[in-house]
Amino acid sequence: MRTKRYRIHLIVALVVALGGFAAIVATRTAPRLGLDLEGGISVTLTATGDVNSQVLQKTVEIIRERIDSLGVAEPEVTAAGTDNILIQLPGIKDDQRALEVIGTTAQLTFRQVLEQVPPTAPDKQRPEVTKQAGTEVNDQEVVYPDAEGGSNAPLYRLAPATLTGDVITKAQGVVDPTSGQWSVSLDMNSEGADRWASFTSRLACLRDKGEQVKSQVAIVLDGKVESAAGMQDPASAGGSGGVACGDGITGGETQIDSSGEQDAKDLALVLKTGALPITLEQSEVVKVSPTLGRDSLTAGLRAGILGLALVVVYMLLYYRGLGVVVWVGLILFSATIYSVMALLGEYAGLSLSLAGVAGIIVSIGITADSYIVAFERLKDELNSGKTLRAAVERGMKRAFRTILVADAVTASAAVILFVLAVGSVRGFALTLGLATVLDVLIAYFFTRPAVHLLAASSLSRNRLVGLRGALGTSA
């Protein structure tokens, strides 16, 4: 009865490990590589001013959402310390665009234009530009330059903000099929729509009174005027309808003109994901070339293969027939850990870093230790005078308990390291923990039944590959 159960366990282990690996290879699913293996950029952003942990965490979430919308594979965005945010973007192609989108504050306000100062005005007549662009000046008059004018841009003196970007519920880049002009279409929530209608209605009334400048609405993004459009008169608007005094623009819809498709989509992205609650500066940008990443991966794989080969050779020389059990077990372990990392990369977004590869290599030694613990326990049982089958039955049971306790300690250390550590150290802890769990499963479903079946076979009496000969005990 036990022999049948052991055979079932052995078949299950072989089918799951080798069958799963074959399926992974057939579907061309591979582990996703991290920044140090695939190349990319690592950015450290530092917040200016006093920042609390809640605001920093909210900023991390907004940046992560922006990066996900860019389609970057396996980004890592974490808070580091009290005022730093660490961003790792493996495999990024357009790093300049990614950096611009990540760091855009996206403080959006809608303000009435009070005065427009042309670039040809004398310096004495040009007011000082307001340096602050955040929420601290929403209730103040400000002076901001036009976004497209460069150093000779016209300046706008603007009233306190009537609406902010908080009212935006939808933003998307659209193109006018007639003119080919790209813009960002904005939808507002109900509160924003009511305030927008009242605001544009008041500006339309100023237009009717001849106030052409003060009837303009300035759409301001991060301290620059993206557009300053006036209210179009219904009498001259034709089919577009215009804006009537007393009615305004209803429905909470408006548009921001853009210079091109990419600019429109990037602006829509940062508006849709929300404004960063703090101002960030790039304190460090490190670029890792794909060539360097491939070299690191090649070195890691060579180290792993060499370590695996040395373990197999040692086990075959020392344990003879039982070394074959080790050899097959390590094959199952390698196939299973590869399949698990590939599946986690495909469906859970896990990226394998060089530290993770190191964790897998270390786990090879842990798995080899499990075999040594089991075989040495068998040797002790045989030397105590027990029969072969009794020694295997008692020895493997006690050996598995020892393996379980030892792996539990290692897994606990991996969990603690994963929770407390940051960056690549977490990758090491994760792979080490996964490998430890796999070691327990392989010990139970493969090693234990394989040794039992070997002891029950005719090979157990062979002097060269038999258990007594392999363990170096007397007949």
Features:
475 residues, Multidrug efflux transporter AcrB transmembrane fold, 3 domains, 15 strands, alpha+beta, Gyrase A, domain 2
Describe this structure in words.
The protein is an alpha+beta fold. The chain folds into 3 domains: 2-32 and 289-471, Up-down Bundle (Multidrug efflux transporter AcrB transmembrane fold); 40-103 and 283-287, 2-Layer Sandwich (Alpha-Beta Plaits), CATH 3.30.70.3400; 108-260, Gyrase A, domain 2 (2-Layer Sandwich), CATH 3.30.1360. The protein has 13 helices and 15 strands. The strands form 4 sheets. Strands 5, 6, 7, 8, 11 and 12 form a 6-stranded antiparallel sheet that branches. α1 packs across α12 (424-456), α8 (290-319) packs antiparallel against α9 and α9 (321-347) runs antiparallel to α12.
Outline:
By secondary structure, this protein is of the alpha+beta class.
Which secondary structure elements does this structure contain, and how are they paired or packed?
Elements: H1 2-26, E1 32-33, H2 35-38, E2 40-47, H3 53-70, E3 76-80, E4 84-90, H4 95-103, E5 108-117, E6 142-145, E7 155-158, E8 163-164, E9 168-175, E10 182-188, H5 190-208, E11 217-221, E12 224-229, H6 234-237, E13 253-257, H7 261-273, E14 280-288, H8 290-319, H9 321-347, E15 351-352, H10 354-383, H11 388-420, H12 424-456, H13 467-471
Parallel strand pairs: 1-15
Antiparallel strand pairs: 2-4, 2-14, 3-4, 5-7, 5-8, 5-11, 6-7, 9-10, 10-13, 11-12
